[in-house]
Each structure stands twice: as structure tokens, then as C-alpha cells.
TrEMBL record:
<feature type="compositionally biased region" description="Low complexity">
    <location>
        <begin position="31"/>
        <end position="46"/>
    </location>
</feature>
<dbReference type="InterPro" id="IPR006311">
    <property type="entry name" value="TAT_signal"/>
</dbReference>
<protein>
    <submittedName>
        <fullName>Ribose transport system substrate-binding protein</fullName>
    </submittedName>
</protein>
<dbReference type="InterPro" id="IPR028082">
    <property type="entry name" value="Peripla_BP_I"/>
</dbReference>
<feature type="domain" description="Periplasmic binding protein">
    <location>
        <begin position="58"/>
        <end position="316"/>
    </location>
</feature>
<dbReference type="Pfam" id="PF13407">
    <property type="entry name" value="Peripla_BP_4"/>
</dbReference>
<feature type="region of interest" description="Disordered">
    <location>
        <begin position="31"/>
        <end position="52"/>
    </location>
</feature>
<dbReference type="GO" id="GO:0030246">
    <property type="term" value="F:carbohydrate binding"/>
</dbReference>
<dbReference type="InterPro" id="IPR025997">
    <property type="entry name" value="SBP_2_dom"/>
</dbReference>
<keyword id="KW-0732">Signal</keyword>
<comment type="similarity">
    <text>Belongs to the bacterial solute-binding protein 2 family.</text>
</comment>
<dbReference type="GO" id="GO:0030313">
    <property type="term" value="C:cell envelope"/>
</dbReference>
Length: 352
């Protein structure tokens, strides 16, 4: 997807949404067709800002659901919007074609929706249309892949790629330290190596490992797909007769990684995933897999984006904050899911 997958734009920002997990991630590269999307993470409106207000129309545009994470994004957005009687949810046809997404967003601008939630295929290429929406007086809630021009959006919400790497590195570092392992063989399976999101994850991982005196022995990039995950894992397993730890950036491609590990009958190492898929969580819960943890980049951010769009369109702020306006950027934390807490997260996992 070249930059079409640059969905992991990042901003320094700092506020996690209440009761939302921040999850690890995948991307929008082609992958095995998802079986279903995860249920929306948000609960029914309960009071305060959730009480019915002015009727608002929220437009929504995202890439095609050819990947478990993206499918869950769309499902979370739709389900959350339906929980509000004062929200009319107006999604446009999902697409991976830049020009088609631009045309779709133009139609929402022409319809004069009250707010727009956009997960762009490519933030750079859709920046101009987001600016047009803003200039037309329509607040844009930029979801995940960031628009380069801050004037193009009212609020950005997304995950923390660097934080994913840090979380994975700390888990592996602590585990190896507890086993008194010295000079460990640590391998890393990236997504697409040229993408900033992947580079951020790898840097966070390396920085965290460094605090334990460890470093990555070998890393190889896949393409966020089951097939490439399987191919890369097979190659790394053949190249290293003994491995102490493996971090795979993406739980969707992790399906292929786990298949390769089982095919090679290898179990001497620990594995950490990335995204928070239901498939990965079930592996962790089983207690019989090398996969012992996954670090989150949650599609529940789409639920939060809809909530933010509603508040902004109604001129409200976030009730738990002192400020009268919704923050300009919200970066969700990356959490670590293990057998000890997986039950709390399982219902939020998306299907790979």
C-alpha cells in the first residue's frame, strides 16, 4: 500500500479515552478476509454529555474492510453512532482508491454534514479534501492516519506506535531477565519496513530492550498479511536454530507467523504480538502457545472518534476535563495483554 498504509501517523498528544483500550495494530494492507469485526467497545450512553442534545449528522469515511482491524474500525463507528438518538450516521462506501475516497468525502461536504470522521487511505493525499471540509465549516475528526496539515482537522485520535514497541520490549526484557537469560536471540517481524509507523514501533522496541542491555538479533519485514507473516517467520526460524523471544508487529499477519511456528514444531521461545486481535487473545488464553502477550492498538478508537465528533458538533467539551473544548489530539496508550488480564479484553478483540 505504499503510503496507503501509512495509517499509523502519530502526534504528541496525550489523553486516553475512558474505558477504552488502546491497541496494537495492524494496517490496511491486503490480508486474509476477516471473518467478522469486533463488537463496539463503548457502552450505551449513560448520562452527562451522553444525554440527547442537538441533532447532528456525522459523515464517516474509511478504507475498505480487507483487514480485520479496518473491519472493526467500521463496525465500532457504526455501532457507537446508533447508540445516540441525536446522531444521524452517514457513512460513504469504503474504498482503497484515493480518488474514490476524495469523491466520497466531497459528497459529504456537499451534504453539509455537521462533522466528519475520516480515516484516510493516505493522510498526505487526502489532506486537501480535509482542508476543504474545514474551510466549509465542517469539523474533521482525523482518525488514526494523520493529515500532515493541522489546519485540516479539528481533532486527531489514534494509537501510539512507539508505545507499542516499548510495551513489547519491556515485556520481553522482563521475561528474559526473570529467566536469567544473557545474550538472548531476539527476532522481530515488522510490517512494511519503509513506513513511519513500522519504524516508530521498531525504535520503541529497540529503546526498551536497551534498558535491559538487550538488542534485536534479526528483523525482517512482512506486509501485514497472513501469507507474508508465514513466509518471514519460516525464514527466520530456519536461520536461527534457537530463539529466545520474537515480537511480531501485527496480529493479522501473526496468524501466518503462528502457523509457521507450529509447522516447524518450535516452542523454545516466547512471542509477543501486536494489535489485540481476538485470535491472538485466544492463543494467549489457551496457555499452550508460544504467544504469551500482545500489545494493543485498538480499533475502539473509532468509537471514541464518533463520540468526539458528536461533542464537537454540539459545541460540548469532555465532561471529565476542566476545559470547555475537546482536545486537539488524543493518543491512546498501548496496553499489554497477557493471560492475567486477557479476559478483560477478549470482547474487544477484532477477528483476524
Amino acid at each position: 500500500m505504499s503510503d496507503n498504509v501509512a495509517r499509523r501517523g502519530f502526534l504528541i498528544g496525550g489523553l486516553g479515552g475512558a474505558a477504552l483500550l488502546a491497541a496494537g495494530c495492524t494496517s490496511n494492507e491486503p490480508a486474509a478476509a476477516p471473518s467478522s469485526a469486533a463488537p463496539a467497545a463503548s457502552t450505551a450512553p449513560a448520562g452527562g454529555n451522553d444525554q440527547p442534545g442537538d441533532k447532528v449528522v456525522i459523515g464517516f469515511s474509511a478504507p475498505a474492510a480487507d483487514h480485520g482491524w479496518i473491519a472493526a474500525i467500521a463496525k465500532n463507528a457504526e455501532t457507537t453512532a446508533k447508540q445516540y438518538t441525536d446522531v444521524e450516521f452517514r457513512p460513504v462506501e469504503p474504498t482503497n482508491d484515493i480518488n474514490q475516497q476524495i469523491s466520497a468525502v466531497e459528497s459529504l461536504i456537499s451534504a453539509k454534514v455537521n462533522a466528519l470522521v475520516i480515516l484516510p487511505n493516505d493522510g498526505q493525499q487526502l489532506n486537501q479534501i480535509a482542508l476543504q471540509a474545514t474551510e466549509a465549516g465542517i469539523p474533521v475528526i482525523n482518525l488514526d492516519r494523520v493529515f500532515p496539515d493541522k489546519l485540516a482537522y479539528r481533532t486527531w485520535i489514534g494509537g501510539d506506535n512507539y508505545g507499542m514497541g516499548v510495551a513489547a520490549g519491556h515485556y520481553i526484557g522482563e521475561a528474559l531477565k526473570a529467566k536469567n537469560v544473557s545474550n538472548p536471540v531476539i527476532v522481530e517481524i515488522q510490517g512494511i519496513a519503509t513506513l513511519p509507523l513500522t519504524q516508530d514501533r521498531s525504535k520503541g522496541f529497540a529503546d526498551a530492550l536497551k534498558t535491559f542491555g538487550f538488542s534485536v538479533t534479526a528483523k525482517q519485514d512482512a506486509q501485514f498479511t497472513v501469507e507474508t507473516g508465514n513466509e518471514v517467520a519460516t525464514s527466520l526460524l530456519q536461520a536461527h536454530a534457537k530463539i529466545d523471544a520474537l515480537w511480531n508487529h501485527d496480529d493479522d499477519q501473526g496468524v501466518g507467523v503462528l502457523a509457521a511456528i507450529k509447522e516447524a514444531n518450535r516452542s523454545e521461545f516466547i512471542m509477543v504480538g501486536g494489535a489485540g486481535s481476538a485470535n491472538a487473545m485466544r492463543e494467549i488464553q489457551s496457555g499452550t502457545s508460544v504467544l504469551q502477550a500482545t500489545v494493543t492498538y485498538s480499533p475502539t478508537m473509532a468509537s471514541s472518534a464518533i463520540k468526539l465528533a458528536r461533542l464537537i458538533a454540539q459545541g460540548k467539551g469532555m465532561s471529565d476535563l476542566v476545559e470547555n473544548q475537546v482536545p486537539q489530539s488524543i493518543t491512546l496508550a498501548s496496553e499489554t495483554i497477557t493471560k492475567d488480564n486477557v479476559a478483560q479484553y477478549l470482547e474487544l478483540g477484532f477477528e483476524s
